[in-house]
Structure formats: structure tokens, C-alpha cells
Amino acid sequence: MAKETNDMQETVELTQQELSEQNRIRREKLIQLQQEGKDPFQKVKYDVTKHSNEIKEDFEALEGKEVAIGGRLMSKRIMGKASFCNVQDRNGVIQCYVSKNDIGEEEYADFKKLDIGDIVGVKGFVFKTKTGEISIHAKELVLLAKSLQVLPEKFHGLRDQELRYRQRYMDLIVNPEVKDTFMKRSAIIKEVRNFLDARGYLEVETPVLQTIAGGASARPFITHHNALDIDMYMRIALELPLKRLIVGGFERVYEIGRVFRNEGISIRHNPEFTLIEIYEAFTDYHGMMDLTEDLFRTVAQKVLGKTTVQYGGHDIDLGSSFARMTMIDAVKKYANVDFDAIATTEEAKEIAKAHHIPFEDRHAKGDILNLFFEEYVEKNLIQPTFIMDYPVEISPLTKRKPDKPEYTERFELFIVGREYGNAYSELNDPIDQRKRFEHQEAMRAAGDDEANMIDEDFMTALEYGMPPTGGLGIGIDRLVMLLTGSVSIRDVILFPTMKSPNN
Q: Domain 16-155 sits in which CATH superfamily?
């Protein structure tokens, strides 16, 4: 078995045999404690009065006063009759001074047998050491739970990314910056809610299981309801139920919830992710642009205390007005192709061939415009930019532009080459909507299994009348990535989708 170092830290790069031996010894320690009537798992409560950060931030008021903390033993330095240890709680790490004279001979002997990773409670008074470190002078130290697994060595941490994502609990223990990311995630979602609630939006909940997979172009997960004997879909979007509520008379609604898309996994995509969709009656996509810009700027300021963030080597300015550009103008700028001068789908396909842009036979002019955009434009959109006026072929739920009916009142927000929001002037013409759905059904029949299905109940709702409405969808995970500087979506989802460890 690898020997413990003088300061009782676990040694570096333990072999599997050594780890198994240490795990065996920890179990033997637990059995001995149980035989002595000191089973830590019998303890059901410990009264924590302060956390590490509170003690450090309020030292002057707490100096000399008794506190009680609970947390994980992360290190200990045995020095004869007195020792030091570091205890990590939810908010950080604090040093504790442990003396045989203060806690008693038997308790001190038990303390010396503790392992790194054990959960302990420490009660004592706050003081500052000769070196100036704020600490707790322990009067009581109690083992609350025994750690039977060896933590990764602290200087090397948990490096295996696959293991980090699969065993997030260990990742949170040994990598403090990971915990900070998820605390920021919670703060971001809280501020999004505060922003919308203050503007009169109502938060609602809609079904996760649906009989029609609608509201987006995506491949759904399919499940089966045994009692009803019908196939059902995990929702791919929040849109259609929320627009039913606009029909019903709610003027401002939003929902933050999980959606599910049976697609690939990458640094940008997880099969289940968190989406917010927002709908407001009596406005249009220009109103939603203003709302989006204000939301991003306000949340950044509230959570980070600033409106400039660093991401991907760029200083992203959320404080200035976001750029606005039509898709046609963007393609003209970056690909030097003017789709206003292209009259037919056949011409668009010929130009796509000349630029080596692959397309499918079913693609129309608008689809090919979007292919050019994806190839030439997206990567250049570093600072916040609204791309507006998408072709009708790829916008089945969006109102047409009155002066240019082959295009729609739709925008997407791009930052550092990624899409962060998608919004429409919502299509409220039931006759046009049915034609769009029928076109989507034809695309499904032609092999596009991401095309929309016809939702007859939603069609009925539209026929009762929906006021002019603006709608917006924002990927919460991508927003968190931006505001925390995280490279992968897996870094901002506590438990990302993983393949089976046996595969």
C-alpha cells in the first residue's frame, strides 16, 4: 500500500491495486468504529451555524466567538499533540486547529485516523493564526460520514473529462471552479425570471409528453403510454402550448423547461437541454429584439457585475447596441452572392454548385440561402448580431413580411459564431399556417424526419383568433456557457447525457 505522506495527503498516481487496498482499509476503519459504538452513519443531525465564507467575510464580528461548520476533510497535518486540517463546505475551505488538550485524548486519536474525504462537523471559536490565516480553534470534531472511496489527489485533480461528467459529484468536490459555474447557472436563471416577472410576464408549465412533436424542426424521442396504448413524444419545443395560452387571453407568458431532441452530441448539443420560450401579445419581432438585447445585458450585469465577457479569445460587448442585418445582406457581405438577384430555385442550385455547397433535391431557393448563410456567415458573427428576415421555407411558424412574402419576420441572435436566440412575429393566419404545415408534411414524406407535423388542435386554436404576437426562444445552457466562459455544453449541465460505461 502506498504510504501516506507526512501531512497525510493521499499520494500521487495510485495504482488500481493501491486504491483497492486503501478502500479496503477504509472499510476496516468503519467496521472498527461500528464495533466501538461510533458508527458515523447513525448520526442524523449536526447544527451548522456558519459557512466558511461567512466566517472569513465577517471575521471582525466573529473573532473569539463560537461557530459550528460541517463539510469534507480535504487535508490534515499531524504535528504531535496539535494538528491543522482543512474542511471544505458548500462555499469554500477553512482551516481548523485541532489540539489533544482541547478535544480530549480519545477524540484526538480518532481524529488522527480520519481519511481525506470524510465528512466532519467542527465546533470551536474563530481566530487568526500567526501567519494571518482565519481559522477555527476546534473544541469539538465529529465524524458525520465515512468516505469509503479515495479522492483524486488534490494537486492533479480529476482530469479525465469523461469521468468528470459521469461522476459529477466527484468533480464538484475536487474542482471548486466547477461548483462556481453551477452556482452562476442558478443565478442566471434566477435573474432571467426576475427580469421577466418585473415586466409582467407569467411563468407557466406545459406538458413534456405530447401527442404531436411540434414547435421546431427536430427529431423527437418516442415513448409509449401503456394505459392509452398510444405513442407519445418528448417535447422538442415549448411553442405550441404557449401560443394556445395567448389565444386564451394571457398576454405575456414564458416557460423555462427541459426539451428533448434525438440528435447528436457535441460541445454545443445535448439531447436534453433547458430552453426558455417567451410570448407577448400585440408586439412583433422588433419588440422581441429589444427584449432579447435588454435581457442579455441585464442578466450579465446582475450576475457578473459587468456587460463585457470573455469568450473564445474575444471580448464580447453586451453593453452596446446589438448589430442588425438581414440574412440576404449577410450572405451578400460574406459570400458575395446576392440572393435578391436570384429569381428561381434552379438558379440558386446552380450557384450552390459553383460554390461547392451541397444540397438536396427537395431544397428550394430559401433553403439554399440558409445553406450559404451557414457556410459563409455564422463563423464571422463574433459580436452580438441579430440576423433577420429568414426565408419562409425554413420558418413554418413565422409571419411573412408584407412587402416580401417569400421571407418572414424572424431573427436569430448570433454571438461568437453561435445561435443564442430564435424569435418570430408569430404566424396567426390559420389558413396560411395550414399550408405551411402541409408543406412540412410533404417534406416528412420526402424523408425529412425533422419536419413539423400538423397539430390539428393548435390549428383550431388559431381559428378562434390569436392577436399579433412576438415569440422568443433562448437556449439557457448556451447563455450560461457564454457568461461563464465554458467551452462545452457538458460543462454547464450537471448530468449531461453519456453513453453507457459498458459500451
A: Nucleic acid-binding proteins (2.40.50.140)
